[in-house]
Design a protein that fits this description.
Layout (H helix, E strand, L loop, with lengths): L1 H4 L16 H16 L9 H12 L2 H4 L4 H14 L3 H26 L2 H12 L2 H7 L5 H21 L2 H17 L3 H18 L7 H23 L24 H20 L6 H25 L1 H19 L15 H17 L4 H25 L7 H11 L4 E5 L4 H7 L6 E4 L8 H13 L3 E6 L6 H12 L1 E8 L2 E7 L1 H21 L5 H11 L7
Parallel strand pairs: 1-2, 1-3
Antiparallel strand pairs: 3-5, 4-5
Helix pairs in contact: 2-6, 2-7, 2-17, 3-5, 3-19, 6-7, 6-8, 6-9, 7-16, 8-17, 9-10, 9-11, 10-11, 10-12, 11-12, 11-15, 14-15, 14-16, 22-23
Length: 545
């Protein structure tokens, strides 16, 4: 018995085989979930998110056409049957972001190897833009997921070149067109590659009729998608606003303007697609060069394993450049090039794996990985823990106004805060005037509109957020020179200031002074001298004595 009591049980940690990729993959997927879901419902909806949520409830047909039809249907279903909370509305984007990481691993494992898949998943899990887009209610996270699924289907069709693979590719492409804006470009790039391979190989000539049918079906789908989306823009002439961004067709280019535009767009697109945090330009350039070097290393691997993927990627980039240079919406802005991000993750991850195999020292391998991940991971963690997904925290601002607003008050809404105000504000007994977008850059128009609104109300709350080029600060300063601000409240980038006219401010202050005097006169503990001093000290500057 004594021997049994003195026996000590020794616990040892299980040995981890570093050659096994499964534990590493589980950690990567767990971290991908954490950075995308944690604190997801903390912040208010931004102006763009609130616009989408409002459209899901009150949209007209023209407003519905701002989104691909199936994407709108998903949004409407979530808004109508699940709820309207910030967490619920953002959850589809977060789930799509996590699914994108998992699908990238499966894709890379299928065509390269498991450890390359883990590296690709790690790059995607902490990709700064993928994390950001997964934490807001926009279409870009879903677009990244559908892009890699469509690329996988295209690669399968190019590899097997059977009727079944071609029909599967067509079905997935049509589904992607219903969900995303950019699916026609991806489908077109793979059609060119598949067609070239069918023509080149005499044994697959019998699949050409099926391929032609698939091409016709996808062309019809792309045309119908274009017509659907054009309904939101064709308000003054066919394709005037939808087809071309900022101008009529053909666009008048000169060499210098085109060169500057290409350089600006290329730098912005590179930083966006590579997921580089905008910290410091030289550091950004070094990290960008490092990732481009990894991509160059990966090409030596991918070209041997999946040459069709490399060819389709080159064609897709060229088509994107042509569409962007032509300013066809939505390709005139690099933020709409999210569909290229999964391909970059594959290239960087495979290059990282290839470079790591050439190193024998584990500290060197760790340094290689950290250099690749530390910059985007820092921004991903910052977006998750340090700050909410967006800084337009309008919900507490409107709650502040709701508690203090009186029946004769009015609410003047800065145009960039209009959608979120419509989403959160529920009282109908207080007049609201939303500033029009046409006032942008015109202080005189803004003041004239505000003056007319102030004339009809005792007090006016100026609600603002999403400051554009310091415009909100400029307009608030203009109002403070003309009116008296008596209350204000801020939350992140959102703010509200209560304004009254100078005359009404003086009358209000006089009323408060009179009340103080009456209380002082009826109180036995105060004398008339104290009451007079209260009145004198409280008289506002410029008000009549």
């Amino acid at each position: 018995m004594a021997q049994a009591l003195t026996t000590h049980t020794t616990w040892t940690l299980p040995r981890v085989d570093l050659r096994d990729w499964r534990p590493v993959l589980l950690v990567v997927l767990f971290l991908a979930v954490v950075v995308r879901v944690s604190m997801l419902g903390f912040d208010s909806l931004s102006h763009a998110e609130a616009g989408r949520a409002n459209d899901a409830r009150w949209a007209t047909l023209s407003e519905m056409r701002w989104y691909p039809p199936l994407q709108y249907a998903v949004l409407w279903a979530v808004r109508s049957f699940v709820g309207k909370g910030e967490l619920v509305l953002r959850l589809p984007s977060a789930l799509a972001g996590v699914a994108c990481v998992a699908v990238l691993f499966m894709f890379t494992r299928r065509y390269v190897d498991a450890w390359s898949g883990v590296c690709v998943a790690g790059v995607a899990a902490f990709h700064a833009e993928l994390v950001t887009q997964s934490r807001i209610m926009k279409e870009f996270s879903i677009e990244a997921l559908m892009a890699i699924i469509l690329m996988w289907a295209g690669l399968a069709a190019a590899t097997h070149r059977t009727t079944r693979s071609l029909i599967t590719f067509a079905a997935i492409a049509l589904l992607a067109m219903l969900l995303t804006y950019t699916a026609p470009l991806i489908a077109a790039s793979w059609l060119l590659v598949i067609g070239f391979l069918l023509i080149r190989n005499s044994e697959t000539h019998k699949q050409i009729p099926c391929f032609v049918g698939v091409a016709i079906a996808l062309a019809i789908g792309a045309g119908l998608s274009y017509l659907w989306l054009s309904g939101a823009f064709n308000k003054s002439g066919a394709y005037k606003d939808y087809g071309i961004v900022n101008g009529a067709w053909p666009i008048a280019y000169d060499v210098e303007t085109l060169a500057l535009w290409v350089v600006a767009q290329s730098y912005g697109a590179m930083r966006f697609v590579l997921g580089i945090s905008p910290l410091y330009a030289p550091i950004d350039a070094l990290i960008g060069g490092y990732e481009i070097l990894l991509i160059a290393v990966a090409v030596t691997v991918l070209y041997r394993r999946v040459p069709a993927l490399c060819a389709a990627t080159v064609v897709l980039v060229l088509l994107t450049m042509v569409a962007g240079a032509a300013r066809f919406w939505p390709f005139g802005n690099f933020h709409t090039q999210t569909f290229l991000v999964p391909l970059v993750c594959v290239a960087v991850g495979c290059g990282l794996r290839r470079a790591a195999t050439q190193l024998k020292s584990r500290p060197a391998i760790a340094a290689l990985v950290l250099v690749c991940l530390i910059n985007p991971a820092a921004r991903a963690v910052k977006n998750t823990v340090v700050s909410p997904p967006v800084s337009e925290h309008l919900r507490p601002v409107l709650e502040y106004v709701n508690v203090r607003a009186e029946r004769d008050d009015g609410i003047f809404v800065y145009y960039a805060a209009a959608a979120a105000t419509r989403y959160y504000w529920e009282r109908r007994d207080i007049g609201i005037l939303t500033q029009t977008y046409k006032d942008r850059g015109h202080v005189d128009r803004f003041l004239a509109r505000f003056d007319r609104f102030m004339a009809d109300h005792n007090r006016v709350w100026f609600v603002s957020t999403h400051d554009i080029n310091d415009e909100r600060k400029t307009w608030t300063a203009a109002l403070q020179r003309k009116y008296t601000s008596v209350d204000e409240y801020e939350s992140e980038d959102a703010a509200v200031t209560l304004f009254v006219s100078v005359d009404r401010a003086a009358m209000t202050e006089s009323t408060k002074i009179g009340r103080s005097v009456r209380e002082a006169l009826v109180s036995p503990q105060q004398d008339a001298t104290a009451a007079i001093s209260i009145r004198t000290d409280s008289t506002p500057e410029g008000a009549p004595n």
